UniProtKB/TrEMBL annotation:
CDD domains tied to this protein: M4_TLP
GO BP annotation list: proteolysis
Main location: secreted
GO MF terms, alphabetically ordered: metal ion binding; metalloendopeptidase activity
EC number of the protein: 3.4.24.-
Protein name: Neutral metalloproteinase
A cellular component term, taken from the record's GO annotations: extracellular region
Keywords, in A-Z order: Hydrolase, Metal-binding, Metalloprotease, Protease, Secreted, Zinc
Family the UniProt entry places it in: Belongs to the peptidase M4 family.
EC category name: hydrolase
Length: 381
């Protein structure tokens, strides 16, 4: 468990983790469906995702820390490739930085989404790309056959076309692009372990900044935002609006084929599952909802005060890779106090975490018994 008195920033190379936006529990549900038009793409997608995880672990690829030298440019360096439904990366280059739009809509959406993510991090947080040092942004579209996912592989973005029955093309949601690239930001900063509560925080941070990319690109206030992750990804006949809801975890979809959104919004319903790397895509609903509560309590643009607190916490060097919910909550409260003083920002942060059942101090005895047990045993098997 993370100890507040021993919080130390991880240093050295950053190890990429297997980060895909569609959780395995959704694909596993589809893989069991009797209709081959549904189960075959899901099974292929699960097999590819498993291969990606094995490949990343066995090759042990790492991303080096940003190199010293000239200041990075204030413009993105984007390249989009077309895998032509193969599984070879990066594929054929089809659009480079500054190039005109092409006839292939997924290419243009990927290009624009990479740019929107770059713009948020530079314009708001003065961060130059994923690594803070101007890392070129690479994307590959049309990956695999009916691949039902999108992922960050430690060096680039990869987009599937979806199966057309349950999932649409994965370039349609700019927040998904922001989500996946933020896994890279985490990789180069806090390097959070992709398991249990630290893994759920890894996923939640990507949801937070994915949503902020969308809100920033649309100029939305916290009250105007939909707080959905992946709106537009689900096919029209699916009974659902997105992959996840930060405003109301557990309500994003409820469909006979896809199942019901399992995300909890509070620690009372924390899921101590051993699946999905210890529930990283499930329990992320808890810190997601905490951020939503902070952002809407403060009002205005969520990328400003609320986003700044989360960004400073992520990149400030005080998080252990295995930080748990209590440790992260305490760190955001300390960040808010340090940046803004004992004012509405600090009060909003502490109230939000209390609202989802996570104390901002380990000495807090008000945590419900069930939540305390879950917090003490985030990796229970």
């Amino acid at each position: 468990m993370e100890r507040l008195t021993e919080s130390v920033a991880p240093h050295g190379p950053r190890t990429p983790v297997p980060c895909a936006v569609v959780p395995p529990h959704m694909l596993e549900r589809l893989a069991a469906h009797p209709d081959p038009d549904i189960h075959l793409p899901a099974r292929r997608s699960l097999e590819l995702d498993a291969a990606h995880r094995v490949r990343r672990h066995t090759t042990a690829r790492t991303a080096a820390p940003p190199a010293a030298g000239a200041a990075p440019a204030d413009t993105a360096e984007r390249t989009i490739h077309d895998a032509r439904h193969s599984e070879r990366l990066p594929g054929r280059k089809v659009r480079s930085e500054g190039g005109k739009p092409v006839k292939d809509a997924p290419v243009n959406r990927a290009y624009d989404g990479l740019g929107a993510t770059f713009d948020l991090y530079l314009d708001v947080y003065h961060r130059h790309s994923v690594d803070g040092a101007g890392l070129p942004l690479i994307g590959t579209v049309h990956y695999g056959e009916q691949y039902d996912n999108a992922f960050w592989d430690g060096t680039q973005m990869v987009f599937g076309d979806g199966d057309g029955r349950v999932f649409n093309d994965f370039t349609v949601a700019v927040d998904v692009i922001g989500h996946e690239l933020t896994h890279g930001v985490t990789q180069y900063s806090a390097n959070l372990t992709y398991h249990g509560q630290s893994g759920a925080l890894n996923e939640s941070i990507s949801d937070v900044f994915g949503s902020l990319v969308k809100q920033h690109s649309l100029g939305q206030s916290a009250d105007e935002a939909d707080w959905l992750i992946g709106a537009g990804l689900l096919a029209p006949h699916v009974n659902g609006v997105a992959l996840r809801s930060m405003k109301a975890p557990g309500t994003a979809y409820d469909d006979p084929v896809l199942g019901k959104d399992p995300q909890p919004g509070t620690m009372i319903h924390y899921d101590a599952t051993t699946a999905d790397d210890g529930g990283v895509h499930i329990n992320s609903g808890i810190p997601n909802h905490a951020f939503y509560l902070v952002a809407t309590a403060l009002g205005g643009h969520a990328w400003e005060r609320a986003g700044q607190i989360w960004y400073d916490t992520l990149t400030g060097g005080q998080l252990r890779p295995d930080v748990d919910f209590i440790g992260f909550a305490a760190a955001t409260a300390a960040t808010a106090l340090g940046r803004y003083g004992d004012g509405e920002e600090h009060r909003a942060v502490t109230a939000a975490w209390a609202g989802v059942g996570v104390p901002t101090s380990r000495s807090d005895s008000t945590l419900p018994r069930q939540a305390a047990e879950a917090a003490r045993q985030p990796e229970r098997r």
